[in-house]
Amino acid sequence: MNDHSASSMAMRIALSSWLLLGLLFAAAPSRAADNTGQDVRVKRLHVELRVNADGTYVEDTDWMQQVNSPRAVEQAGQIRIPYSSSLDKFEVVEAKTLKQDGRSIEVAASSIFTQDGLISPQGVTSFQDIKTTVAVFPDLDPGDSIEIHTRVTRQRPMLPGVFSYSRVFGSELQFDDVSISLTAPKALALAVENVGLQASPPVEIDGQVRSTWTYRNAVVKWPEDDAVDPIMYQPRLLISSLASYDDLARAAAAAFAGKAAPSEPIRAVAEQITRGAQTPLEQARRLQEWVAHNVRYFAIELSIGGYVPRPAEEVLLTRFGDCKDHEVLLQALLAAKGIASMPALLTTQPIYQLPGVPVLAAFNHVIVYVPSLGVYLDTNTPSVSFGALPSVDADKPVLLLGAAVPRARTPSVTAEQNVTTLTTDVTIAADGSASGEDLLTATGASGIAYGALADALTGTDPVKVAQGVLLNANLAGEGTATARRISNSGSFRFDLLYELQDYAPLDQPGGVRPVPPMDFLGMAARGEVSSAPTRTLQYQCVAQINEEVINLHFPPGLQIGVPKNVSVSAGARSYESSYVVEGSSVKVRRRFISRVPRGTCEPADFPAARALEESILRDLRAELRYTPLTSAH
Questions:
Q1: Which pLDDT tens digit goes with each residue over 287-314?
Q2: How far apart are CA 520 and CA 446, in angstroms?
Q3: pLDDT tens column, 472-495
Q4: Euclidean distance between CA atoms 25 and 9, whole angstroms
């Protein structure tokens, strides 16, 4: 992760949304089969930083990477580097393909090009200062290497007078030769956090201090599944001219100052939106929903787009913006109604504690905090409900810009704020075929995550969506599936209608697993813990309630036996199931609850959680046994 490059740690999105996506589409390969560590080898990474007293700098990066598989060739054959031209001048000094036979093939100037801006909702190029430089490497085959030398000239600091640098080395990649050198004025005080790199003694020449750090790793090691705070346990170099996070908050607050002033057009819009709303709570609710649904969101991380938002009136006029533009417009609308608020910096990455050195890369997102209501508001997701946060925002350290005590924490998601319910009704015919319906509803954090899925499925073929679900469940049949929001407050609904062939041959004794095609509860249970037998690091977990009710209707003339009821618990997690025969029908109820208090769980809790998962999966494998009455005697 680098404050002034395009790279950043991969963002984890809400667990629950991926669970349903896994049901709709072909499952991704497990990480055990992912050989990225062997696919790519960083043979050289040399960085030369020349820092000025005002926080500007020049950074030269000489990078050589070997690609050892067709997948790596595909990924590395075209490199895309986004940057902000209002902050940086970016150059590709040299780029080439290095063949295994020793040949060197220069990347032609025509194969290095820059794309301008983003496209606005009206189809107009916007954010003109956001550029993407693309370099296409010729004749690249497995075993070859790419070599690129880039130069970034930071012409304006991200925050006035602030220099910040972050580099984290993932243990899943092999680094043969890393060298980072930094030259800065002796008078520029820099805080440094170095873990795992070899530091050379600083050298002072003519009032400039040159420091060098080197690194290599001989062993490639995969990080634990869902482990959090990688910045805290992986080799890293963090450098900042800021002495504390309070200093960072003050500098960022100055960048936001005056941007959320409520102009007359903003006041007029605020009045129109809140007409009839009597309380500040209802007014804030309406304003948040209006911004979320009427201002198009462009995902530009703070590390690329900078910390300075556009004025609120400009955002209102164009009706699009990134997170900080959303934030200042909502602040201005709230201010127009006399409701005080402030920006809150946080990260959507799996970082739950801030590093010791206050680096800008610790934050990539900004939302609004309303002190009088005690709520955080994120308008970047249209399906977000008032007072609820997407999972990626929850339980995160924040900096409140303008607060007397800027360091705070967003609230955790509670189980009652993250409820998913699946109701299944299946009727089995005498010939063993079946017709059924699955109805999944989700509210709170899961509903927010699913809102994007509802948008993604808009216009897709409902028959193909259903085929994907049935295929994943190893069921032969056909059907239709639809996904939609059922309100603007984070509620979601997914309907699956299906006809199955050879579901249960009833002419002889047999069994049926009472697991719906969507098997949401099973996936939720598996998602709670990794397949790894042990853990040594904190890992992501989520408070949730998952319930399912399954009604199976058999034709008459069968003797039906059901599994034993189950009730197990482990710390903050519990599971119970019941099986009741009602005539020729069976009603199955299952409920999995996780009341973990935070977004992270301790490795010491993992064995009990894993044991609970195994109990749940055993119950899900249990069968309803049936015997034709003519065979029962």
A1: 999 998 899 877 554 444 578 888 999 9
A2: 12
A3: 888 888 999 887 765 555 577 888
A4: 25
CB 526 within 8 A of CB 594: no
For 413-433, what is each residue's pLDDT tens digit? 899 888 899 999 999 999 999
Residue 226 in tokens: 């869902």
185 vs 518, residue with greater confidence: 185
- The token duo for 454 is 């509802």
Pairing assessment for the beta strands 365-370 and 375-377 based on DSSP bridges:
antiparallel
Q: Is 126 a residue whose pLDDT tops 50? A: no
Write out pLDDT tens, residues 235-247.
Answer: 999 999 999 999 9
Higher pLDDT: 535 or 34? It is 535
The rounded distance, in Å, linking the Cα atoms of 99 and 572 is 56
Distances (CA, A) of 543 to 66, 248, 394, 418, 521: 42, 32, 11, 7, 14
Mean pLDDT across the chain: 85
- Find out whether 274 and 337 touch, Cβ atoms under 8 Å: yes
What CA–CA distance (Å, rounded) separates 489 from 446?
11
Give the pLDDT confidence of 583-623 residue by residue, as tens digits: 999 999 999 999 999 999 999 999 999 899 989 999 999 99
C-alpha–C-alpha distance, residues 439 and 548, integer Å: 10
Task: State which H helix or E strand residue 398 sits in.
Answer: strand 397-400
Beta bridge pairs of residue 496: 438, 481
CA distance 522 to 622: 13
Burial of residue 93 (CB within 10 Å: 0-12, 13-18, 19+) is exposed
Q: How many residues does the chain have?
A: 633
- Dihedral sign, Cα of residue 92, residue 362, residue 284, residue 454: positive
Whole-prediction pTM = 0.83
Place of tokens 């040399």: 46
Question: Encoding tokens for residue 428?
Answer: 């089995």
- Tokens standing for 255? 């960048």
CA 503 to each of CA 151, 194, 246, 362: distance values in angstroms, whole numbers, following the listed order: 63, 60, 63, 52
Instruction: Estimate the crossing angle of helix 15-24 against helix 444-457, to 10 degrees.
Output: 40
Handedness of CA 24, 29, 31, 32 (dihedral sign): positive
Task: Say how far apart CA 376 and CA 291 lie, in whole Å.
Answer: 14
580 — phi, psi (to 5°)?
A: -130, 130
> Which is nearest to 426 in space by CA: 587, 546, 623?
587
Name the 3-class secondary structure at 195: strand
Among residues 309, 316, 311, which one has the least CA distance to residue 265?
Answer: 316
Is residue 382 within 8 Å of 293, Cβ to Cβ?
A: yes
Residues 6+ apart with CB under 8 A from 532: 224, 225
Bridge partners of 561, per DSSP, are 625
Question: How many angstroms separate the first and last alpha carbons of the chain?
Answer: 70
The Cα–Cα gap between 148 and 569 comes to: 54
- In 516-584, beta strands by DSSP E: 539-540, 544-553, 558-561, 566-570, 573-582
Separation between Cα atoms, residue 316 and residue 267, nearest integer Å: 11
Cβ contacts of 576-582, under 8 Å, gap ≥ 24: 577/619, 579/514, 579/624
Q: Would you call 425 helix, strand, or coil by DSSP?
A: strand
